[in-house]
Amino acid sequence: MSVTRARPLLVDPHRSGNDCAHCGARAHSVCNAIDARDLDRLAAVAVQLSVEPGRSFIDEGDPAESFFNVTAGTAKLFKLLPDGRRQITGFAGPGHFLGLAVSASYSFSAEAVELMRICRFSRTKLRTLLDDFPAMEKRLLEVASNELVAAQEQMLLLGRKTARERLASFLIARSEMPVHCLGHKPGSAETVLLPMTRSDIADYLGLTIETVSRTLTKLKGEGLIEIPSTETIIIRRHVALDGIATGVDSGGTR
Amino acid sequence: MSVTRARPLLVDPHRSGNDCAHCGARAHSVCNAIDARDLDRLAAVAVQLSVEPGRSFIDEGDPAESFFNVTAGTAKLFKLLPDGRRQITGFAGPGHFLGLAVSASYSFSAEAVELMRICRFSRTKLRTLLDDFPAMEKRLLEVASNELVAAQEQMLLLGRKTARERLASFLIARSEMPVHCLGHKPGSAETVLLPMTRSDIADYLGLTIETVSRTLTKLKGEGLIEIPSTETIIIRRHVALDGIATGVDSGGTR
DNA sequence: CGTTGTGTTGATATTAATCAACAAGTGTGG
DNA sequence: CCACACTTGTTGATTAATATCAACACAACG
Description:
The structure is a homodimer.
Chain A lengths: L2 E2 L31 H10 E6 L4 E3 L7 E7 L2 E6 L5 E7 L4 E2 L10 E4 L3 E7 H10 L1 H27 L2 H14 L2 H4 L8 E3 L4 H8 L3 H13 L3 E5 L2 E4 L2 H9 L8
Antiparallel strand pairs in A: 1-2, 2-9, 3-8, 4-7, 4-9, 5-6, 5-8, 10-12, 11-12
Helix pairs in contact in A: 4-8, 6-7
The structure holds a DNA duplex.
């Protein structure tokens, strides 16, 4: 990891004035409500890092000394079982916060999917900063609340949806993500870019890579999606796919 | 629901000085760091309610007008698919906060499992109160963080664990819950009380009631647990059961 | 070019779901 | 007090969805 001292993502280039439904960030920065003077105090404790694809920067069980703010790229967050089974609990793109945990050690690992830029804060320093910036605390609470809602939605998916519904949900959710949450160049409205591997998708959806592959092939065969390349999917019948995702419709074929 | 105006759970009878690993509450109140004067201001906006078993007090999709603090009893929190499939995302006992969501409507439903006492706060009033009580905001952030960790653990369970491992995890987690989180009288250290039905357990673990029943019977047959009554389970071999729960050991039998 | 990583497709195995029957407990009303 | 319905839980037989095992295609890369 290359280390440079630089301002964190304090002023967001994608600022739109609206909350992001996915990461909950209002302006995709840790402190959108903080003025320029405070901003410099924050920057003083932040270090900006680059993380190569495949490199992990948070390891489950390690002492939780840092707090991160993703500014570019995408990370996968996951937990492992002793025998290697893996559950990816989420993908974190620009604007996401990581390592918020109260406990002394990280409860998950994080690894870059694409080249990332992240801001690292010392958690001890962050703690004192939070006392000075109530607005920041408020933002973090909003973010955490939104992530909790997303986590519950994912529990519904993992516990009760079929493989077909899981893939449909995944594609719909990806297609609805705003540009700034993706961590890579967007396609058109119905073009979904998948920077992660089939293995990552499988571990995110609680399936095997074979089932992911087969299910996508089947959706393609039914004309719901196109797969021009491994990492690109075009949604052809958004309404139908959404119906499958939400379980109102099996989509003709199981 | 009977409605009475009363103090919320501001001073907790179970105060131990330590954080609760499950609900994250330090003293199982919304404002343990708030002094007596502030306490009265909070109480002024809270209403205490009783909820009968089987009655729901939060409905997914309804306008999120209230914020709740459980003071007694247990609720199940769940999401539904249109065809009736249900995922219970958690059980909320004394000290838990509900309805923290930023969005305008509730993202889940909540129904009492046992007779409950809950404190209801108007969310609009709560919002203004939070500005006055930074300590409360901090507490809520801690709580939300802890719930996020629990949610990720549950995703691992739902996505990657076998039925056997899910039941073992559930029993171990229940056995480790401190008295004040249970919402009912505790048994001895290794006696786990299950106030919820098999159907609730199944929907929490992403299984069917038949699989829950069969798996418990099998664990009993192996001498890992005893089932003196439907709602009581005694853990006989805690270490072995924990090994199954964490996936280090299949426990001899699949 | 071979090698490696990633993805697809096919054949088979296995887990857990489904369908079904029954047992036990609870409450109701005659 | 007992028949009855109703709910909840257990157990058995069978099915179905997905995992596993295996082969192969293809692209990236040294």
